[in-house]
Design goal:
The protein is 28% helix and 42% strand. It is α+β, with helices and mostly antiparallel strands.
């Protein structure tokens, strides 16, 4: 199980770049999928970091109100990824 921790900073949820890169690495190792971590602005998702070969993704997984993950994988893998990620 991959655990994503949130830190409160001035009433905002923040994750440092190193933590985000760790999340990318852990998800890639666990599920072997290309992915990107994005900052969420309502309907717009802005790329922050991701796997080396990430071009575009098919599925969006919202981590919290500020961050999300875009993955490029098969339909049945999306649910496995959602189940394998625990948010704190």
């Amino acid at each position: 199980m991959i655990i994503i921790k949130e830190f409160l900073k001035e009433k905002e949820i923040c994750m440092c770049n190193e933590e985000l890169n760790d999340v990318v690495r852990d998800i890639y190792k666990a599920f072997n999928v290309e992915l990107a971590i994005c900052e969420v602005f309502e309907r717009r998702w802005s790329y922050i970091t991701g796997t080396k070969n990430f071009i575009s993704g098919r599925y969006r997984i919202k981590i919290n109100e500020k961050y999300g993950i875009i993955v490029n994988c098969e339909d049945n893998d999306v649910e496995k990824i959602k189940e394998g990620i625990e948010f704190h």
